[in-house]
Amino acid sequence: MAPRPVKAGSTLRDRQREDTRQRIYEAAIAVFRRDGFATARIEDIARLAGVSHGSFYFHFPTKDDVLFQHHRELDQRVVASLSALPEDAPLRGLLDTLCAAFSTEWERDSSLVPDLAAAMIRKGMVRTPPAEMSPVGRLLTERFRLAAERGELRRELPMEWLCSLLLAQLFTTTIAWLADPAMALSTALQRTAALFLTGASASR
């Protein structure tokens, strides 16, 4: 995993703290992958990171918080893929790119997807208001607005709602795929997105 860029104006202490946080994060993900999230022990994570037990809790109050950090980093990579498309890219092309990016990320750590879903429910993130949407959600909402202006999307519902609906459908599809991977995840996600477009398209 690439090191984080150093923030302008950060002190040596800031950089050391960020380096420690990153080592703990990487160690935690490694232990989650090896032992499973539920059975992963904080002492094993701390030992692998070369820090004290208390240092883990200073940076991550719970194991769930490591998953949220993992999800934020995943989100940033998906945003980068979507941002590479021009703003006037057709909606179907945008969703194809979204599905491809999600499948790449979620297949890499498929065992952690159910744990992330459970952590999000515990945190109440499933009720996140539009103003607190993830970077992917905010970018998609803006692209949906542009698509609606071009006549590609219906306007009966707010674009934030449509975005949340799509992301929930894609995440649910991934959970179902884990239980029965009868097809490639990318195919399952693309078919889900196609069904979404069937209902949301302005051409209906």
Sequence-ordered SSE layout with sheet pairings:
Blueprint: H1 12-35, H2 42-49, H3 53-59, H4 63-83, H5 91-108, H6 113-123, H7 135-149, H8 159-179, H9 185-200
Polypeptide structure, described:
It is a single chain. The protein is mostly helical and 204 residues long. The chain is built from nine helices and no strands. The protein has helices spanning 12-35, 42-49, 53-59, 63-83, 91-108, 113-123, 135-149, 159-179, 185-200.
Oligomer kind: single chain
Count the helices. How many? 9
For the largest beta-sheet, the strand count, sense and barrel status come to: none
CATH domain class name of the largest domain:
Mainly Alpha
Radius of gyration: 19 Å
CATH H-tier superfamily of the largest domain: Tetracycline Repressor, domain 2
Shape, principal axes of CA atoms: globular
Average pLDDT: 89
Order of helices and strands: HHHHHHHHH
The proportion of residues forming helix, as a percent range, comes to 55-70%
Assign the CATH architecture of the largest domain: Orthogonal Bundle
Q: What do we call the CATH topology of the largest domain?
A: Tetracycline Repressor, domain 2
The strand count comes to: 0
Q: In percent, how much strand structure appears in the residues?
A: under 5%
Model regions low in confidence, pLDDT < 50 over at least 5 residues: none
How many structural domains? 2
GO molecular function: DNA-binding transcription factor activity; transcription cis-regulatory region binding
Pfam family, one: TetR_N
InterPro entries: Homeodomain-like_sf (IPR009057), HTH-type_TetR-like_transc_reg (IPR050109), HTH_TetR (IPR001647)
Organism: Sorangium cellulosum
